[in-house]
Amino acid sequence: MAPPVDLIIRCFSRRRDAARVEELERRCEAAPAGKATVVLQVDTMGDPLCRVRNSSMHRMLVAELEGELVGMVRGSIKDMTIRSSPEEHAKVGYVLGLQVSPLHRRRGIASSLVLKLQEWFVANLVDYAYMATEKSNAASIKLFTGKLGYVKFRTLSILVNPVRRRAIRLPPGLKITKLNTDQAERMCRRFMGSTEFFPGDIDQVLRNRLSLGTWMAYLREPDGSNAMPASWAMLSVWDCGQVFKLRVQREKGSSCVPYGTKASSLLDRFLLCLGIPGLPDLSNPFGFYFMYGIHGEGPYAGTLVRALCRYVHNMASLANDCKVVVAEVGACDALKLHIPHRRSLSCSEDLWCMKDLKSKDKDAAGFDWTKSPPPPALFVDPREV
Ligand SMILES: CC(C)(COP(=O)(O)OP(=O)(O)OC[C@H]1O[C@@H](n2cnc3c(N)ncnc32)[C@H](O)[C@@H]1OP(=O)(O)O)[C@@H](O)C(=O)NCCC(=O)NCCS
C-alpha cells in the first residue's frame, strides 16, 4: 500500500520526541486488554538512542502522521570485513529498532522509514545494509525480503546463561590473564580481522566504557617460554546494563516494550526465566553481560573457551544486578558447543537479512556478498545487541 500522503519521516529530536518515543514503545506490543500476561520492561534510562549511540555514525528516524508519532527506526554505519580471502572490507549499514504503532500498520509506514534510512546509507556510500530478526517474525521477514529486496543471509544462535550467586570452579592447570586494550586490539586484528562482520573500528569498541575488558586463557607451559601457547582462547565482555535495564513482570493488560529487531529475540528469552526454579529472579531491574570476540586456537581451544565463560560468569555473580550472560555466534560455529548456556533460554534462529546497495559500477570485481556461503565463524559487534 502507498504510504499516507501526509506522512512525515524526519530525524529524531530529543526535545520533541523522547517522551513520545517511550510512549510508542509501550504501546507497540500491548497485551490484549484484560489478559494477565508476562511482560518485559526495558528501561533505556531516558535515552532512546542508547543502542546506536556507541557507533560513530548513527541516526534515528521517526514517522509522524497528523502530529502523532507512529513509527521509528534506528541505523548505524561502519566499515567491516566482508570476506576473508582475499580480505575485503565494505561500508555496511545496520537497521534496528523498527517499530510501527499497532493502529497504523499495513499502511506502508515501516517501508517508508526503512527506505528513508537507506537513502542516508546511500548518501554515505554504504555498500550493504542488513538487519536481524527472529525467524518466527513473519511480518518483519515479509517486509524486508518481500517488499524491500533483502535476502536471508546468515543464521545465528543467541546463547543465554543465567547467573548463579555461587562461583563456578575453574579447571586446574590453566592461566587466565586480562589483556590491556593495546594487546587486545592487536590480538583481535590478528586473529579475527578477517572474520566476516569484524568492525574496522575495533579499537573504539575495546576502549568504550561499556567494554569491561578482554581475557585470554591458556594452558600453563612447563618451560615458561614467551612463545604463543599451543592452545589458547580469548573473549571480551560488554556491560549492557550500563545502557539499559530489563525487568520481567507479570501484569494484567499491561504492555511489553520490545527493544528493536535483534534484541527482541534476545530479550524474549528472558521471559522464559520467570518461574523456573533455580533461575535468577528477574522481577527487579537487571542488566546483562555480552561476551564478544570469542576465539580459540589449538587442540584445547574449546576447553579454554569454556573456562573463560565460567570466569565471566563468576565476574557477573559479583556484579550488583547482572543476572544473565549472553553470547551470539554463527549457528555453525564450532565454539558454540563450548559456550555454557541454558538451551531453554537460548535461541538458535536469529536471522540476519542483507541487501546490496552498491551502484552497479562499484561491482566491477563481481563479488556479491549477499550470495556468499556462510563462513565457519562471524563477529558479533556488541554495539548492536
Ligand atoms: C514489522 C512492522 C514494523 C511492519 O510495519 P508496517 O508499517 O505495518 O509495514 P508496511 O505497511 O510497510 O508493510 C510492508 C509490507 O510488509 C509485509 N508485512 C507487514 N506486516 C505484515 C504482517 N503482519 N503479515 C504479513 N506481511 C506483513 C507486507 O508485504 C506489507 O505489504 P502489504 O501491506 O502491501 O501486503 C510492524 O508490524 C511492527 O512494528 N511490528 C512489531 C515490531 C517488530 O517486529 N519489528 C521488527 C522489524 S525487523
From TrEMBL:
Region (Disordered): 365-385
Coiled coil (residue ranges): none
Signal peptide: none
Molecular-function GO term, any one: acyltransferase activity, transferring groups other than amino-acyl groups
Sequence ranges assigned to domain N-acetyltransferase in this UniProt record: 7-175
Record InterPro entries: Acyl_CoA_acyltransferase (IPR016181), GNAT_dom (IPR000182), Plant_NAT (IPR052810)
Name of this protein: N-acetyltransferase domain-containing protein
